[in-house]
Amino acid sequence: MRSKLDRLVTALEVSRLPLVFTAIANIWLVTLLSRSAALGDGTWPHWTILALTAAVATGLYVFGMTLNDVLDSRHDRTFAPARPIPSGRISPGAALALGIAALLLALAATLPLGRTSTLTALICAALILLYDAAGKHVPALGLLLLGIIRAVHMLIADPSLAFCWPVWLTLSHVVALSTICYRLEDKRPALSPRAGWLVLGSWAFMTMGMVAWMSHVDGLWFPRAPWIWLAPTAAALLFLAFAARLLHRAKAARSAGGGLMKLGLLWLIVYDAAWLLGAGLWTQAAVVGALLPLAWSAMWGVHHLRAAATAVTGFEREG
């Protein structure tokens, strides 16, 4: 008989919940920048908006992770039998029900934000489905989709966002990080040079599109906040230093890829806090930055809960 602790750990593992803080930080960045630009206009107080957008981020993230495990369950029986579904700790039906419930939560949380936000969330959910069902099997498409999903997810908070450089940085970071880690972990199908150039060209096309949008809507926001670039630029350079150190000390490419991916995803929170610092929003930057130790603590907690649940299960079998 499975313990309650084992059920809890299984739900945390299948949803990859510790890393949900990176998605919350992303959507909070746009929320806080937009609310600051609006000078407090609107009928909803900050705490309500933050709660709603956190629910959106959590719901979409859990939907994507659980759907991924459900669709990969046959593959995982051979190549990752310890995962929650192939190990029998949760059924595909239960995992799918969890994912659908999370998606419904996310969509419900967008309703007070407006119809455009709800439509953007639906587009994001469709992109997640496309990635999980097909994109991840086509490297050039999948690597781009990972960045696009993050970008669209951020825009749920404000689909008309004029200053899109934070969204561009997140998209660029995720695409570059995913591509490098894909090669380091030697995933299949292999990323061919042609596919690599396609990823690069598509990223450049999206960059030009975002620049054109910003130029048309708000003049790129250069004159009003010239110092906003300093903190994100410093954060990017610091990440490169940490990444180089990690790769230099790694004993194997696969382990380096896994470590770099974890570091890179957590670093999204650093970028988000840095943008807020650059905009002079010190309190907001502290709130978003606090999500980084929460994410680390959650990862540490799940690791030790898993060990405890395994020990309890083994004791019960022996007894």
Structure in words:
This protein is mainly alpha-helical. The protein has one domain (4-313): UbiA prenyltransferase (Tetracycline Repressor, domain 2), CATH 1.10.357. The protein is 77% helix and 0% strand. It has helices at 4-15, 20-37, 46-71, 73-79, 92-110, 115-133, 139-155, 165-184, 193-218, 230-249, 253-278, 282-289, 291-318.
- How many H/I helices? 13
The ordered H/E elements are HHHHHHHHHHHHH
Low-confidence stretches: 315-319
Q: Helix amount, in percent?
A: over 70%
Q: Supply the CATH superfamily name.
A: UbiA prenyltransferase
Major beta sheet summary: none
The beta-strand count equals: 0
Please give the domain count: 1
Round the mean pLDDT to the nearest integer and report it: 88
User: What integer value in Å does the Rg equal?
Assistant: 20 Å
SSE order and pairing:
Elements: H1 4-15, H2 20-37, H3 46-71, H4 73-79, H5 92-110, H6 115-133, H7 139-155, H8 165-184, H9 193-218, H10 230-249, H11 253-278, H12 282-289, H13 291-318
